What does this fold into?
Amino acid sequence: MRFFGIGFLVLLFLEIMSIVWVADFMGGAATFGLMILSFVVGMMMLRHTGLSGVFLAGAAIRSGEQISMYEMLWPIRYAVAALLFMSPGFVSLLIGLFLLLPFKGKPIATMQQQTFGSGRGENPFTKPHTQDNDDVIEGEYTVTRPSEKDKQNYIEHKPD
It folds into this structure.
């Protein structure tokens, strides 16, 4: 946290310099067009992610497969990349593109074992396996329909 302000100023300086370097290389109109295009792409990415990103993270956790933390954080990476696309400059654009790369990490179950569960290395995001099928609920039911006589008695003796 101590060097956060200095890092922000360095990033700001690099953003301005990247705009100047690209404008010198490609021209001012092309640079402005690329910045507008980058903003529009970032805006479309943010509109696309919405609640679906949260649902995607939840589905990844509930799938029961061994997923990496980096894969689980995909919706957050996607939203941060979209925000970086919307900021003017090309350094943030490169960082945003880097966030969109499909890196894989170690599965959660093989990470440090004292982090999750009872220390036996089980994956906390998997469903426990049982012998019987949990999808079947056994039972009996009977459908009873009131007769016309019962309906009439109910209407006559209905409390006010």
Remarks:
- Residues 110-119 have pLDDT under 50 and may be disordered.
- Helices lie at 4-26, 28-62, 69-72, 74-86, 91-99, 148-156.
